[in-house]
Amino acid sequence: GENVEQHPSTLSVQEGDSAVIKCTYSDSASNYFPWYKQELGKRPQLIIDIRSNVGEKKDQRIAVTLNKTAKHFSLHITETQPEDSAVYFCAASTSGTYKYIFGTGTRLKVLA
Amino acid sequence: DSGVTQTPKHLITATGQRVTLRCSPRSGDLSVYWYQQSLDQGLQFLIQYYNGEERAKGNILERFSAQQFPDLHSELNLSSLELGDSALYFCASSRSGRASSQYEQYFGPGTRLTVT
């Protein structure tokens, strides 16, 4: 069945450094890839997404890259700040299926 | 605020009981998704409705059921509750106007269910 693998499960970086989280999906028909940030006890919030007709998308300090051939996509956070500390989830969705398959999450800690 | 509302915020009940969680999607959104998140775990997709019809099922137990009403709000019913059902239950909505395209999902604040 469909599967999304996410690595690493935890990531600690120094403030100001970059953080990269990687996801690999199994369904080659997946064509929409959102990323969510979840702070402790709160709802997941969409921070950026990418569709399969685009290889990269940026929004200020956040960027997502997609490699359709390898079936993986990555979240890049530059100039990390303590408020970036949270759990980040990737997801993959396939047109027509209505399903969103989530990765297992990455706990990011930004050390001041 | 995502515009998705969920009630109640917290629910404490005993094993064997039945509860109903309610979700109202964002204005204009036709799709509702239900997810379960156990402590320090990921988001497990349970079920999805589009304009009143069930469209996708995930790892939903037979003790759980859901429906979407004509006004598009949705309810998740959990019965014969077990200790392991304690979790955060999130509802999300999206436009999903056509099967050929996907739209962003927006999550509600969640209902924290504690089974004692």
Number of strands of chain A: 11
Note the run of SSEs of chain A as H and E. Answer: EEEEEEEEEEE
Indicate the percent of residues in helices of chain A. under 10%
Shape of chain B: globular
Instruction: Tell me which oligomeric state these chains represent.
Output: heterodimer
| Poorly predicted tracts of residues of chain B | none
Tell me the number of helical segments of chain B per DSSP (H or I, 4 or more residues long). 0
Number of helices of chain A: 0
- Class derived from helix and strand content of chain A: mainly beta
The greatest inter-chain interface is formed by: A-B, 23 and 26 residues
Strand portion of chain A, in percent? Answer: over 45%
Number of strands of chain B: 11
Helix content of chain B: under 10%
Care to describe what's here?
The complex is a heterodimer of chains A (112) and B (116). In chain A, the strands form 2 sheets. In chain A, strands 2, 4, 5, 9, 10 and 11 form a 6-stranded mixed sheet that branches. In chain A, a hairpin with a 4-residue loop joins strand 7 and strand 8. With 112 residues, chain A is mainly β. Chain A is built from no helices and 11 strands. The mean pLDDT of chain A is 93. Chain B contains no helices and 11 strands. In chain B, the strands form 2 sheets. In chain B, strands 2, 4, 5, 6, 9, 10 and 11 form a 7-stranded mixed sheet that branches. Chain B is mainly β. Chain B is globular and about 35 Å long. The A-B interface holds A 31-32, 34, 36, 42-46, 49, 89, 93, 95-105 and B 2, 31, 33, 35, 41-43, 45, 48, 50, 55-56, 58, 90, 96, 99-102, 104-110.
